[in-house]
Protein: 2Fe-2S iron-sulfur cluster-binding protein
Amino acid sequence: MPHRDPDELRLALSIPALSPGWRNSFHDLLADADRGTAAAGPTWTGFRPLHVDEVVAENSYVTSLYLSSPDGTPLPEVRAGQYLTLRLPAVAQPAPVRSYSLSSTPVDGRYRISVKHEPHGTVSGYLTTRAHPGELLDAAAPRGEFVLTDGSEPVILVSAGIGLTPVLAILHELAAHHREREVWWIHGARRPEEHPLAAEAHDLVTALPHGHEHVYYSSAVPRDRHGGDFSHGRLTADILTALSPPADAIAYLCGPAAFMADMRQALESAGIEADRIHVEAFSPLPSTNPGVTPRSAASPHQPAGAPGTGPQVSFARSGIATPFPDDRRSLLELAEACDVPTRWSCRTGVCHTCATPLLSGTVTYEPEPLESPPPGEALICCARPDDDIVLDM
Structure:
């Protein structure tokens, strides 16, 4: 029901017997209630063309693309830390879908993404070597909850490799609008030449009255020293703990999964509460399946049996696109058949644990959910596709 009482939601969360699925649901409801309103939906539906204005090689590994509206109107405002999802039919069919963090706040009504060229990445290879000014790219509206929260507490930004992109956007936001806050920028890379946008981050931190910068290069050599101040060695949990980050801070982590796990543990050891540590990852999210015995995870794959005849369903994070099978009752069942990690609890449209960003397309519910999901999301446990859809899972 609407107009939920935050105190009653906190009371519900204090019940020890509350299942993980319901606990997650109540936690999300409380976050909405504390903000005073539900999170705003995407600023446009489906995919729309964006114009490539500039292509800038940041180093030999990373290229930035500046994107604008084809008609010249400013693109909608975004929250620092959100990501943009691209669909590239020129690369393959069905068109692959990939998400990239915005690496700055909007500049002159434009968006910037910074893409690392992965050795066997067809999409990243296209964007870093073949994309050119004047080209049009299909993009879904920016999304994501990895965003800077209001407040006055210190902010810790921890990243490794290309994981710097969303935290760099948050750093831009802090430098522009929250200069009074204490800010820690902690980054790890192999060598200076593999640290894109380093000068940009350095300039932003040093311009902050309460900025702290700690950069670690695991494979630096003596001649790298002329490139600026840094510490030699890999950024580890022990090193992060030794920095004595403030225990009342809010933290944002982005990088390889193992790195984020180590950094999270270090921050919790430093006294930072778990719910004040935010992480961003573009791999499939971990499953939340209460009551189901854990089993070894298989890589996502096409479902067994004859191909379906229904609309095309694309799981963006998992890199799987397949026709909806005739014998499946819901998108959740299809995801499970493909070993795409799933999140559910009730399987009847009640708890909203399965709420998933719907990047494009429409769905029909059977049964109808107790409460509709926010705009731009779908309850996959009781949804079937009406037409070709793209899910952020």
Observations:
- The CA atoms of residues 113 and 217 lie 24 Å apart.
- The chain has four domains: 6-35, 47-143, 155-280, 312-391.
